[in-house]
Amino acid sequence: MTSAKNEVIINQPIAVIWDFVKEMDNWAPLVPGYISHEKVNERQSQWTFREDVGILKKKVTMLITIKEWIEPTKVTFDLKGINENMTGKGYFLAEALDKNKTKMSGYLEMTAEGPLAGIINAVLKTSVPKKGEEMTAAISAKLMELKPTRL
User: Fold this and answer.
1) Dihedral over alpha carbons 92, 131, 38, 24 (to 10 degrees)
2) Once rounded to an integer, what is the mean pLDDT over residues 25-48?
3) Neighbour count for residue 4 (Cβ, 10 Å)
């Protein structure tokens, strides 16, 4: 199992963070290596992205299932590989620091299983923290572009 947690302070009210994070379509394209995503239903979507494994480039498709939405602070989710034997879970957590400043935390945990698990888990040890940092930075940058719609 490999996990990574990233935190960032965003100069936006918690309501702006929630309005963005509660909708998967807003943050799916910010996943490093993003190719596409498709909603299956209100709580599930299928994401496809490119993963570089050493010199190999793999197309990975995951089913993302939202476990809970706790407005305005938390979204938790599970991941299950469709074309790869991987599982995981994660969350976004927002904490209002003041009226116009919010701490956002992102957590991701991934595990590979099966005959190539040792190799894949070794790659995940470096790629999950790196991709988590990249995604946190991308979400933070996107959030800073938004104008508050409610206060």
Assistant:
1) 20
2) 93
3) 21
Average pLDDT for residues 105-125, to the nearest whole number?
90
Identity of the residue numbered 101: K
Short-list 61, 111, 107, 64, CA closest to 88: 111
Rounded Cα–Cα distance for residues 34 and 108 (Å): 16
Q: Where are the beta strands (DSSP E) in 11-148?
A: 34-39, 44-53, 56-70, 74-81, 86-98, 101-112
Q: Is 68 in a helix, a strand, or coil?
A: strand
Question: Tokens 């939202």 sit at which residue?
Answer: 66
Residue 39 vs residues 44, 64, 66: alpha-carbon distances, Å: 6, 9, 11
DSSP 8-state symbol, 84: S
> Residue 51: phi, psi to the nearest 5?
-120, 125
pLDDT digits (tens, 9 = 90+) for 40-80: 998 999 999 998 766 778 899 999 999 999 999 999 999 99
User: Mean pLDDT, the chain, as a whole number?
Assistant: 90
